[in-house]
Amino acid sequence: MRAAGVRAIRVAAALVALAGLAHTLWSGVAEPGVALAFGTLITVGELARRHPRPVPRPDPRGGGGGEPAGPPAAEDRHPAPLGSAGALAYALLGQNGGHSTHHGVLQTVTVVVAAALVGIVPHVARGRGPALDHVARRVLTVAFAAACFQPLYNSGRLEEWVGQGPYLVGFLLFLLGLTALCDAVLAAAPAAARTGWPYGPLLRDELRAQLGIGSAICATGVVMTLGVAVVGLWALPVFSVPLLLTQMSFHRITAVRTTYRQTITSLARATEIAGCTPPGHARRVAALSRSVGRELGLSERELTVLEYAALMHDIGQLSLVDPVPCGATAELPAAEARRIAELGGEVARRTGVPAEVAVIVERQADPYRDQPVAARIVRAVNAYDDLAGGARHPGGSLAALERLRLGTGHDYEPEVVESLARVLARGGRSRVVPVPPG
After folding, report:
1. What's the CA dihedral at 373, 379, 382, 383 to 10 degrees?
2. Which of 127, 133, 144, 149 would you call most buried, defined as having the most Cβ atoms within 10 angstroms of its Cβ?
3. pTM assigned to the model
4. 48-71, pLDDT tens digit by residue?
5. Following CA atoms 127, 79, 77, 239 in sequence, which dihedral angle do they give, to the nearest 10 degrees?
6. What's residue 81's pLDDT?
7. What is the pLDDT of residue 332?
């Protein structure tokens, strides 16, 4: 069903684009200067597009990774913000320097598609072209915005209802809010089909992402529309500068986060290099913990904190004189496990990670009812990986999950264990069948 939904989105986008092209070829281009100006802006935005980082799908069999399949990070959901803002501005354009425009819905779609295709050609030539779903989303969201605005404006009904003052600005902001909602709905569908994760949490993540760069895109689109309506096309380069600066800031923040994550990952590998834990253990626990956290509805920030804590959960073993055999802390006595967890929290604090990360690490040995949700997740996933040995032998995953289920009375949160089972079942490699609670 999810794959059918993705195909429906692509087919709808293709039909809308073909209808726009046919109409424009038949009727000609209205206001070609305006179309060229906005087309150029969209093309420049596509040329400056950012290439999203792939998010690895956790591999229940271990090995420290998997194929790129997860949803993009929050800062990667709008890889071409300037092009998106230009497209929305053209869709909502009613006047150019005080003179009414008449380009309509289908020409809007044609100009946006043509400009976007020209802009992505260099990326495709380098083998880094955008995903087809991104293009389909752009077509449908622009068509939605234009269909809600152009007929009302060109018929004069919008001016009768709201006039040309502040009420028009409010209407444009409301319309862009609906467009952002439409974009989030369309973005969550391919992510659900690609990952197999529930649609609801993915939609919530997309809506949260709209509050960041998505808000800047919508605001810039409105400002461009109003600026061109008053002063003409000279407003386009002027009002593009703030969004370009915002895009540069996002790129810099993303680079800092990437470096920070790489530093924590390298620090987590210290336990493997020292022989305290099996190869890939920290990365497996981090990947599965993040998937379980998403299954439980954690926010993007909470998922990041969870990932850092999962990477560092065994860091306390570096302080031990005698290493734990195979690094398996799940079978240790409570006192020894608590001592390792407290050592790990102390080490984590010295690394400068957020305080929440150190708290999650040092509370790994507490009874699960006293732990925060992230600590419950890391504890259960760590125990699963210890018991299954990376799922390197037949039946290992199923046996490990049964052990966790038997321990849900005291050691592990039942909801976390069942969420882990569902994540592993969707992975298609572990031959695990989730059992409903109770």
Report:
1. -130
2. 149
3. 0.74
4. 776 555 444 444 444 434 333 445
5. -170
6. 85
7. 64
Q: Left, alpha or beta for 428 (phi > 0: left; psi -120 to 50: alpha)?
A: left
In this model, does residue 390 exceed pLDDT 60? Answer: no
Confirm if 362 and 345 have CB atoms less than 8 A apart. yes
Structure tokens of 379?
């504890």
Burial code (b: 16+ CB inside 10 Å, e: under 16) for 327-346 equals bbbbebeeeebbbbbbbbbe
In the block, which residue shows the tokens 């790994």? 364
Q: Which residue has the tokens 């792939």?
A: 54
Identify the three-state secondary structure at position 310: helix
Give the total residue count for the chain: 438
**What single letter denotes the amino acid at residue 376?**
R
- Residue 389 to residues 397, 420, 428, Cα–Cα distance (Å): 9, 16, 18
Which of 240, 248, 241, 242 is CA-nearest to residue 37? Answer: 240
d(CA 420, CA 48): 39
Q: What angle do CA 377, 382, 383 make, to 5 degrees?
A: 105
User: Which pLDDT score, from 0 to 100, does residue 77 have?
Assistant: 57
Q: pLDDT tens digits for 249-279? A: 777 877 787 888 888 888 878 877 777 778 8
**Amino acid at residue number 123:** H
The answer to whether residue 214 scores a pLDDT higher than 90 is no
Query: Radius of gyration over alpha carbons of the chain, in Å?
Result: 26
Nearest-CA neighbor of 255 among 85, 124, 268, 247? 247
Tens-place pLDDT, residues 184-204? 888 888 877 777 777 777 888
